[in-house]
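User: What would this chain look like folded?
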Amino acid sequence: MNWTLKKAALRTVHYTTKVIYPILKTPEPELYTGAGSLGQLPELIKNQGVERVLIVTDKGLTSIGLLDGLYSALESDDIHYSIFDGVQPNPSIQNIEEGLKVYQENNCDGIIAFGGGSPMDCAKIIGARASNPKKPALKMRGKFRVWHRPPPMFAVPTTAGTGSETTVAAVITNPENHEKFVVVDLKLVPPIAVLDPELMVGLPPHITSTTGMDALTHAVEAYISIHARKSTNTDAEKAVKIIMTTLEDVYKDGSDMEKRNQLAIASYHAGLAFTRAYVGYVHAIAHNFGGLYGVPHGLANAIILPYVLEFSLPNIESRLAKLAVISGIGPEGDPAPTLARKFIERIKDMNRNMDIPTQVKELQEKDIPLISKRALSEASLDYPVPRLMSKEDCENLLRKLLP
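Assistant: Here's the prediction, encoded as structure tokens.
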């Protein structure tokens, strides 16, 4: 199929799904926010009829004692808990099976996802496997393949970035071919989310910056998506305004509880936006950097975002111009092309000010054809991008990321 026909076919799919997806009515979690909100979790768990929970997290968080308060609260309310802290930065199928084993051996009936995007995604698929024990994770790849609803999940993010506490998706790595795949299902949205900024105060600056840029990427890609609509635009605008005006301050001073809380709420709104309007080429490429090289997802997104926006610029000037005005980057009366360019330059400045590089040091020329093929395959039907990218376009963009 030549490129012209392929573009026409893809656009037909994108505009058809734009009409269909809003009918699905994506659920939203019951949200609890503010300093100390974690203390409400035991009562919320009991209200769901859950008696034995599996805590899904990573060793980095258990080793610094960040879960100690949670353990005490659960013990005080006589809620039995088991711990699986083997989640890797890019969670794998093996992580899911290991966590599932702990869940089953301890007769758990609920899950607490505690951490960043990796524990969240891992917990979602552990839950999906628990309720669909005969269906391997790979068989859930794609959309709407989780037949039975997972057990109650309580999402406790410790970073303001992924928005996974709001989303219908989980991203998993297949270690056999070092490729990431996405599981999408309305049943994966956690029923309850707790955003407690006290859990985020001790984050290292580089985690604050990259997770914050991850949330910004979610909001911006949702805003420029063909599937964007009034509700997703409202969420994206809220997120972009907060992140563009707050993230660097929190990077410099992580102890500011109020600004930490604002970033957590921004991440949540960005999650609401992109789980309904979807993401784009930034994520498609970033997933492959994560699968192939283990590059942290937020870092990859931060590096790639300005390059993809520059590629897409002819189709998104008015959209970026509006975000520039909302973020206080320029006045409303300036020409759209000027404002759009200022918005992209502001993202580059934020990266520079937070020591985020402009290239991916792991990237190798020999891998570019494979990354391009996988990224375009992921994005083609599922991501309603504003400007379609050919294989040549993608490879040219990737070369700009070479160290």
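The CA atoms of residues 281 and 379 lie 6 Å apart. If you want, I can go into more detail on any region.
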